Request: fold
Amino acid sequence: MAKTDRRKQAAALVLYPLDWLEERSGLVGGIKYFLFRKVPGDTGWAQTLGSATLTAFLVQAITGVILAMFYKPSPNEAYSSIQHITNDVTFGWLVRGMHRWGASVFIILLFFHMARVFLYGAYKYPRELNWIIGVLLLILGMFEGFTGYLLPFDQTAYWATVVGMNITANGPFVGGIMAQILQGGPDIGGDTLARFYSLHMLVAPGLIFALIGLHLYLVVRLGVTSPPWSKEAAGADYNEPEPEPPARAGLVAPTTRGRPTP
Amino acid sequence: MEPGQGDGKSQVPGPSLLPVAFAIGLVIVLVGLIISNWIAVGIGAVIAFAFGGVWIRDISAKSAVGEEEPPPPPTRPGAAVSPATTAAITEGERYPRDRFLEGATLGLGALIGAVVTIPPLGLLAASGFEGQSFHAVNLGALEEFPVGKFMITTFVSDPDAGEVSRRTAYIRNNGFLGKLPSFTILSNHCAHLGCPVQPNGPVDTAQKKEVKDKQGNIVLSLTPVQPAGFGCPCHGGQYDTEGNRTAGPPVRALDRYTYSIVSGHLVLGSAFSVAKVEGTGKDAKIKKTRLQFPGQHVDGPEFWLWPIPEIRT
Reply:
């Protein structure tokens, strides 16, 4: 008797602030709606790649914010500040390593996620706009990689950026102008580093955050797609015995859709 | 392009010349960009905008005919509250108050937005082109450059920028041409994508000479080398000792620097691009062009087909 009373008391203690928040903002309901929305029954592990990419981006954001507290974006101090982070600061090597390797993880997951969407045909009506936003996110992710690569300001960083800027400059009509705006002059100089730093940690992440918000909004609004072999989407009854799938090898799981039923 | 032709019976619009005029405007803009004639670009833009605008108005007018045109009283969803007010608006005011307020809010908002965003964007864009002052660099006395030998000359092109403006040129004294000394000064920027080209030959590091400033930073270094040519480590471009491309992906010869001689000292000038060099040393005939980005053709059909504006300083 006393035990159930105590349980009720504990529940009330947790629920009271949540109710207070819900009554004034509707946030709890919104988050519940987001987390517990309905998805097709045959949604699988492949559909988690988007969340994995988001997690990789959040890791980049958090480690990047901490690294920005130690990094100095000036040509004479950049390299030594990176050395300081790597060799002197406690856990500096770890956080820098997470940011450096996490960048590759982010791009790789981005491509896996894109491949999943493509192979499942999840870019089709009415989700075309979400595909377009995804492409913009891919471009911004690559831009993050390009601008971040200069920041250690060692020889690799410098010459890779020289080559990258000259490739930019070879675009027709506006290539040269774009390169000169990006590097702040006809050549890479002291301004270039600060400019890339600002683009890397303010402009591009801001745009990425905004576009991820739109991306998720559309995912929630339009729902998750079933896989192309989905029986649920095809209206099959799970209680019926499954017909024997024909023996064959292929990338796509065997399907009975579009075949004459025996 | 034109909606409302779905069933093909309702109305068949006569052929319009407006898209053609719009396209002609665009062509003039593109040709103007290719030949760097900004007047032509402006004229083309005006033509394209004018005819494009009329074309869009034409299309929208046609598609509006297809829709059900609502009867004249312009009742707006917000204003349609009571019959009395709607009557007052439809009869009395041709330009109602709420429309004025809407226009004023949007117009003022746009104005304020422009006032606060144009200066930062201007700073971002203009800083790449304005105030890029050119610094002449004193490379030391002429006697430092032995005739017929290349000197790997590393210098700081802008003392204020410091280390990041360190550049390398390969300088050869060609002896006298008539009464004046002649130099070949090759930039080390590969004409493919700008990597630093290296001399193909033993570098005589024992003979290296360095000049330091008051803080002890090396501002100038000279190292003799007798290369068979120059090669780029990035993508394998090869050049001969005149800077002509001999192999690999570069699209033109190595860039060169102008120079002057001031009281017995060699002074480095600005860089320029080179299509081709005929002959060698002081007798070389250099096909000079304005400085271009690496990877850009400076002559031939590719130069015309792939227009890139030259470097602006």
User: Anything to note?
Assistant: The CA atoms of residues 82 and 152 of chain A lie 6 Å apart. Chain A has a mean pLDDT of 88. The first helix of chain A runs from residue 2 to 25.
